[in-house]
Request: fold
Amino acid sequence: MECRVKFLPLGVEVTVKDGTNLLFAAQEAGVFVNSVCGGEGVCGKCRVRILRGEVEHLPTAYKLRDSLASKGYVLACRSLVKGDISVEVPKEAALSGGKILMDGETSSRGQMIVARNMREMPFEPLVRKVRLRVEEASVASPVADYERLRTALRKALKRPEMPFQIGYKMLRQLGRKLREKDGDITVTIGKRQNTYEIMALESGNKKAEALGVAVDVGTTTVVVHLVDLGDGKTLGMEAKYNSQIAYGEDYITRIIYAEQNDAFGKMQSLIITDINELVDKLCRRLKRRHDEIVAVVVAGNTAMMHFLLGLDAHRLRREPFVPVANIIPPIRALEVGIKSHSRALLYPLPSVAVYIGADITGGIVAVCMDRTDKLSLFIDIGTNGEVVIGNKEFLACCSCSAGPAFEGSGVECGMRATKGAIESVKIERRGDSCDIHWSTIGNRPPLGICGSGLIDIIAKLFYLSILERTGRFNRTINCDRLFIEDNVAGFTIVRKGEEKAPHDITINEIDIANILRSKAAVYAAIKILLSQLNLPLEAIEQFYLAGGFGNYVNIASAITIGMLPDVPHDRIAFVGNTAIAGAKMALISESALERIEHIAHKMTYIDLMMNQQFMDEFVKANFIPHTNISEFPSVSI
Amino acid sequence: MECRVKFLPLGVEVTVKDGTNLLFAAQEAGVFVNSVCGGEGVCGKCRVRILRGEVEHLPTAYKLRDSLASKGYVLACRSLVKGDISVEVPKEAALSGGKILMDGETSSRGQMIVARNMREMPFEPLVRKVRLRVEEASVASPVADYERLRTALRKALKRPEMPFQIGYKMLRQLGRKLREKDGDITVTIGKRQNTYEIMALESGNKKAEALGVAVDVGTTTVVVHLVDLGDGKTLGMEAKYNSQIAYGEDYITRIIYAEQNDAFGKMQSLIITDINELVDKLCRRLKRRHDEIVAVVVAGNTAMMHFLLGLDAHRLRREPFVPVANIIPPIRALEVGIKSHSRALLYPLPSVAVYIGADITGGIVAVCMDRTDKLSLFIDIGTNGEVVIGNKEFLACCSCSAGPAFEGSGVECGMRATKGAIESVKIERRGDSCDIHWSTIGNRPPLGICGSGLIDIIAKLFYLSILERTGRFNRTINCDRLFIEDNVAGFTIVRKGEEKAPHDITINEIDIANILRSKAAVYAAIKILLSQLNLPLEAIEQFYLAGGFGNYVNIASAITIGMLPDVPHDRIAFVGNTAIAGAKMALISESALERIEHIAHKMTYIDLMMNQQFMDEFVKANFIPHTNISEFPSVSI
Reply:
């Protein structure tokens, strides 16, 4: 039997077989429903409301509150379609335009550092157009066309030993192109490992039309910059959520999905379609053509890079966790389906290991850690937290599973940093009540709380002694916002109806425990890396906090909850999306790519997975701010 | 009106428009008719006999003898089809299996030198299969697949710094292939300029199946060797006439034809079809598959290389005579249409200039001139004569137009070195008559005289004082074989009917003048090159005579007529087809290719075209043996 499933408020309808999983039906309809756990019935994020018709319920580990269940809410991943139905996808479960970090905007000090580093890179794009005059051969010097062209290129670029390669098609055009305008020719050359490929020949001056694309393929978001390769300026940028999210919020879940459904090809095409969609948008807006795009540089974690390139990702989730390749030579962008010039080169930035991807190697160069004497520490927090310590002498890194709590998962009222998410909070105690001031992304009615909001709330509640060091609420105080349900205490941030809130927005002890586990993992990773390197915390002169998350978090709150170590605030710089910055740097400067490759080669990776010391540190960090409060002298208990 | 043209003895028929040129009709029918001058009515080689029907005669510079004209002979290139006709293509105008030099057969001392050089090359084929065991990654060392593969390859080849490249398709197979047989893998790697490409991955041992092809594309002949890249042995060889011959015997004529008929594509496909035909034959005979062929190395003169690769050949025949490229990077063999493995690489050997092609650079390495202290002189005589002098310290070269006389053109009874050609002659004078002993190629009834026969005849007639130093017959002697027609003296070698000769086979003063011009050009080129280098003839310790022509010529006769300088015979080695030898050396030894490239870079080219001294030497050499007889002390006058 066929059933029609209608998704509201979008109004999209899809016809599926009787018994089809509702989450799968949503995927089929192209309707995004959060599914952090990938359909395992654990995260509770895929709750939708059945407005009309019936579904069959499967057993589930995550139990919806009765108040929700009674209103028709179900977990989409644990519901089977049984007849025609209408389904409402609540705003907090859907994806909408959020605070995707498209660039280091120049607001913060850290982002200004990245912008300055970008400007100071030698300008030598990976693919560039060079206008030349190639003198005609003479009887006295009957030098072949290709040899004269090479000599002219070497002279123009002041690189007398520059090694070139040329393909069959270019060679066949060479004689004619060289003479169409009497030796006035624009040559597109592209770096290919240790040589330069002659990629295109145009008679006369075509310098204005070389475009490059920098891409950051994140697990959650895809960001694209369209760059003028003539001057290195970003002409425009666009971002969207990674369409793979429908198949799991973390890459492990997506690999499992792909394995079970033979869907690696689908995973690849989802990313490619996302990139093309963003590039299309930019081209339309800026009135440029796809075939002007001659270079594409992609940053992303190792799994995203495997998906993008259609590489075998099976082993990324299995011991001993090996990628197919960390350092991948450039390939033709068209070969993977990115709409561009027929010979455009796609440069995947290199990674270090499964857990230290090209987003990190690119980020290191974006903040210039590899060029300074100063010891710096770089943290990129997403679902995983990556930590790098070093300077121009050495670089060492590790990665921990921070878990998706900072992205709202495992937190009842948690949500992504999208419109309507509470991102910062002020709380004042007034007797038995609290005054709460909060702000949401996009100034929309509040729907839930995103990572920075959660950190703020926990820090402030702790500061007001409403929350104890263990992450449990102080049950001895009187506060009308405190409540206890099934022995779990909670605190109401927004009451239903207040500023059009559709329901109560709360935080409870289970939510807080999840957040503390996430921050503990990050903090323990920092501690272990320092300890392995025999470095005291004080030796670190500069902290870089990267990633979409890092840009909006309140620094004092992050130290208060013990996520960041207790160092002077001026040592901490929020550097924004350094993955896209690294991709763009490589795009406009071949020496940046060389540095990134060098980093991928030389960076020491320290595995925490089996490290007992890490487990100890992790347990000790599961407090506010920490078991050992002497590590946080600035946090008053 | 349509006319049917039937060509005998093949019996091939073609339908053409009324007024079609008969030579063109033959080309359309795929019937080869010699056309040295490319249809200009000058060489007289395209004579055919009209057996039935009529043709319209165009004015012609070359006048057929009345005795021939009365029998229905016409020049095909100056005849227009006017109705249905039958045409006989005489044997001497057709091509048939001749003495195509497929290899330095090990008969002569020179050929043994080449064979020894081949054996002494380090065995490291340009494309090779390497069998490896790539250990699985471990938790302790979770190295990516590609990095482990590279490390294993570098170790197996004892090249710790070996730079690699890998394409998108290979990368996508890597994870799976590596594990199909637990890390037991055979990798095909191919040299690509300064890196090695990973071209194919096969699980387990597939070492036996790597084949390479060495090709010599000559203006006249195409030679192919099929080589086992596992041990460097030639498994088989085949040769045929270059099908382009139908469009002119020299490349200039072919370029003109291609320009006038927009037929560069056709020129390319003719060569490719020839190569494929020979490779097909070898594959069938040896029961091998085309997809086992992973490397193709091609030697050939600069024009043939341009035709083969479809490069713009217009400027090869126009001042200042510039090739599109001398040093051409490898391309995919399939891209030009050579049937082979989908990623097989085609390596065009590099050339020095329009007149010094890859046949010469390859030849130099075949004789190892670039590695010895000994000063050597290398001559390759075909339509052009190329001369190289040097040793491991320096190499200098020049080229002269020897003309096609040695290939039988411009000589009334001249013909190619094919079956039925007189290739050597002994003459004894007995009073007023001569006893003549001659041998033909294939011991067939005599049809004409090929180059080595012409040299022999001139030397012997001169020795017997029948011929004077000027190239004119001594009209004071009585000899029943001497005749005079229209004031031009001639000499009958074979009388019609003798040993089934279809007609008289003669040589006259015009023929001899043509031969003398050819040998004078070669000798003058040697003289000028020595003089430019300030070297006396005695400084040359070794002479290498290469090319199809050189292999059968009588050395004493060649000195007698003044084609070769008068040096001790043991200094002269006939080295055979060194172009194919050079191609094979490169195929099985990357250091040979490096040496050839080095030669192409460093060899000094001396242009004789505008050289007045060359003209003077040329005029002085237009005698037997030379104006200055002191240069030929061993030749008794």
In short: The mean pLDDT of chain A is 90. The longest helix of chain A spans residues 509-532.
